Amino acid sequence: MSTQGFHQVQKQTQNLVLAPQLRQSLKILQVPALDLRNAIVEELQNNPALEELPIEGISIEESNSTSEDSGNDSSKEELEFSDDFKVLNQMEEDWAELYSQDGGSYSLEAANRRQHLFDSLTSETSLQEYLIRQAELSDVSEETMKALEYLVGSLDDHGFLTISIPDIALMSELPLSTIQKAHKLLKTLDPPGIGSVDLQECLLTQLKIKGKEKGVTTDIINNNFELLLRHRIPEIARKINVSIEIIENAIEEIASLDPSPGRRFSDDNNRVVVPDVKVEKDGDSWTVVMNNDYIPRLRLSSIYKDLIAKGKLSVTEKVYIQDKVRSGKFLISSIEQRQQTIERITWEILKFQNDFFEKGVSRLRPLTMSQIADVVGVHETTVSRAIANKYIDTPHGVLPLKYFFTSGYQADGGKAISNTSIKERIAHLIHSENSSKPYSDQEVVKILAERDVKIARRTVAKYREELGIPATNLRRKYS
Question: Taken in order 270, 360, 459, 372, is the CA torsion positive or negative?
Answer without folding.
Answer: negative
